[in-house]
Specification:
Layout lengths: L1 E2 H8 L3 H9 L6 E2 L5 E3 L1 H15 L4 H13 L4 H51 L1
Antiparallel strand pairs: 1-3, 2-3
């Protein structure tokens, strides 16, 4: 079992973030006799998944919906699949947009390097 501080450190988030996820019903840690939150390996695996979804810009509302569907049981498998497929599609659009932007930046950088190189060459030619 892990404390909230240990989990936060392990995941690179704040304890506030973990409390927020609990408030949003994304995670339900166990409590010890003193009422302190305790996390097990299952919680850690789930939180790692949540962090990946968050890193890919999945809204908290969708993460919460997925968590609720999971807790409802196997009969929600199709709904969960649909939610993840929709997110994957969104991710693929983001990747495509990033690739287009990266190419534009690459071309712009090459143009500036060429401009600077030509300017340096012409300035060097004038000095001799």
């Amino acid at each position: 079992m892990y404390t909230i501080s240990e989990v936060a450190k392990s995941l690179g988030v704040t304890t506030h973030t973990l409390r927020y996820y609990e408030k949003e019903e994304i995670i339900a840690p166990k409590r010890n006799a003193n009422g302190e939150r305790m996390y097990d390996e299952t919680h850690l695996a789930w939180l790692q998944f949540v962090m990946r979804l968050k890193q890919t810009q999945m809204p908290i509302s969708q993460i919460r919906k997925y968590a609720q569907l999971y807790l409802e049981g196997e009969h929600t498998a199709q709904a969960r699949l649909n939610l993840l497929e929709d997110h994957r599609s969104s991710l693929q659009n983001q990747i495509s947009n990033l690739a287009t932007t990266e190419k534009m930046l690459k071309d712009k950088i090459a143009g500036y390097k060429d401009l600077i190189s030509r300017a340096a060459t012409s300035n060097g030619a004038r000095k001799t």
